[in-house]
Amino acid sequence: MGRIVHFGLGNFARAHLLDYTADAGGWDVVGVSLRSDKIRDGLRAQGFAYGLAVQGVGLKHIDILREVLVAPEDPSAVLAAMTRADIISASVTEKGYHLGADGLLDLSNSSIQADLSGTGPNTLIGFLAIHLSTRQTPLTVMSCDNRVENGSVLKAAVQSFAESAQIAINWALVSFPNAMVDRITPATTDELRTKHSDPMVVPTEAFREWVIEDNFKGPRPNWPDVQIVSDVAPHELRKLRMLNGAHSALAYAGLLHGHKFVHQAIADPDLRKLAVQLMSEAGAILPKNERVLVPAYSQALIERFENPELAHRLDQIAMDGSQKVPYRFAQTLRAGSAPSVATALDAWLEFCICETQAGRRLNDTRVDDIVQAARTSSPKTAILALINCADLVQFISE
Ligand code: CS2
Description:
CATH class of the largest domain: Alpha Beta
Number of strands: 12
Number of helices: 19
Distance between the termini: 52 Å
Helix content: 40-55%
Strand content: 5-15%
CATH architecture of the largest domain: 3-Layer(aba) Sandwich
Bound molecules: D-mannonic acid
Shape: globular
């Protein structure tokens, strides 16, 4: 039996990695929550099994999770579990990597500083560096987060931590494949919990996609329908700029128009036009082989967004804009004329200003900087300061 230790057991991991791995058979998963005990407590009460409510297909019983460890309760138990893993994976969202403007590990971040000082560890990066310093068997470390070159970025962050902490790692034993992950997975509602008599049920769409770089050390599950390729870049650029880019555009413009869900925003003629054009602008600068896929992919995305049963909340997508906007919009803007992407960026800026003026606290790791920027007296200065919060200055000024 192979073993995956997975950091970050939110709905996405339970709908994607765990679903694929359950289908593969022969592997189990130990989860790690880096902060709260909520998911562990909920899952433990039901023997770590849960229902995956696959829209249009039905309820799937997922029963490959053996245990969930809560890192702050006992970091040494997490490190012990990591020694038994063939694969260590993570879906800790963009902010869980603690990267700075340059895409490198932010060594001044307080959580990273705490790990460097030898307490904990309490971050994914700290756990990986410390584990790898004693690892003697091959290991694949797999990022399942939305980020360009997610595996390479994770490796660079761990390297930077190890250098700073003066930890020696045998890099020949470990690989960090890049991957593109896709499955729209909204937050669970009370209605769904009641319907399935399962407090930990996860709603998801029928569509799922996973493309992983052929760069494994040691065994891997025989995941069905997963593409193992030599270069993930074209797939990930298509998905991050078209799906996630359109998602963010719909979220900010949609919330400003008074919508609550993705299916409502995509039914609004102005916003639909914005999303369609944004996808076409993003698609036009994709690598050549991907460009032929753009019209069909764009149409398929619209249909996924139209799905009313998913009830995907726009505010869920809107959170952490400072982390998401750069990789979703910046390269398309940089490549030349992209008026719809520019409109989407404006929508983010306006959203930040409106929310701040209305006294609502933004759900963003850089909320304090954003609030300060949004309150600047002249609108022009406010906008420049906000662009700075998403580290977009380099793209806008070039
Ligand atoms: C969304 C993503 O919340 C967001 O930012 O754009 O979670 C999106 O649903 C997934 O990447 C789809 O694979």
